Amino acid sequence: MDTPDGSPMLRIGELSRRLGVSDHVLRAWESRYGLLQPVRSAGGFRLYSEADALRVRRMQAHLAHGLSAAEAARAVLGEDNGAGHGRAAGPDRDASAASELSGVLRQALDAFDEPAAQAALDRLVSDLSVTAVLRDVVLPYLTELGERWERGTASVAQEHFATNVIRGRLAGLARGWGNGHGPRAVLACPPGELHDLALMVFGIVLHRSGWRIDYLGMNTPVAELTRTVDARHPALVVLAATLPETLGPLAAQLTALAKRAPLALAGAGATPEIASTVGARLLTGDPVTAAENIQWPW
User: Fold this and answer.
1) Which domain-ending residue is among 30, 55, 81?
2) Which domain holds residue 227?
3) Domain check: are 47 and 71 in the same one?
4) Distance (Å, rounded) from C-alpha 230 to C-alpha 224?
5) With bands split at pLDDT 50, 70 and 90, how would you rate the model's confidence at 100?
6) What is the number of other CB atoms lying within 10 angstroms of the CB of residue 147?
7) pTM for the full model?
8) Neighbouring C-alpha atoms within 13 Å toward the C-beta of 53
9) Which stretch of 97-106, 113-122, 177-186, 201-210 has the lowest confidence by average pLDDT?
10) What DSSP string describes 92-109?
């Protein structure tokens, strides 16, 4: 079926594939904000126009600049009708929805219910900006999960299941983060460090600020990191650790690395003392805020 101007009408699956937005999110944007305006085919299927696709692309652009889904939808609809009136929820409703969905996400992950967890994450991404989901939902959940594991109120199986589900979602957000023309950052965890989800969050947000990311991840030998730095000539190297004893024995190697490229240390294992000793900058605060505060030139 075509529109009156001859452009094709698309079913939601094709629209999803073209735009890289899940059909669950597209339906949420349609039902909550009126962002999409489909027509019905003779067979009763919803069909979407190029105008719908354009609104989604503009929605994505607003989200990339940090607006919540509600704010982005209001902006898109306001651009269409020349006014600032969309069918969007306000900030208080956004916060309430995020809190409710955070609880749903936790329950789903604790119950090993991957479909329900993915649905909760879809809803969160449709309601909030990516940075808000990472800072206000994902990172607090991971911290709380770690605390429950240490107390013995969350099992090893629950911790592994939840982190693997979240890792998969972060990997999707990280897709293409090596593309672009901005400065390059190499991100890694030192030998023995097996917790890298916070570093992934940092890289996702840094990429959204225009940086290109070379991600080496957990348990990276400093010699390999140094070879990568020599080959890639990054504008920044970030090494993240959760325990101070991980970085201390590497002081000599890190001092040499800091002379090759600007080095920053992050995570609970990065102390002012070790940063000063090796000539590195110390990144403080949560990974989202730390990435947002990175300025280049260094």
Assistant:
1) 81
2) 184-292
3) yes
4) 10
5) confident
6) 11
7) 0.71
8) 18
9) 97-106
10) HHHHHHHHHHHHHHHHHH
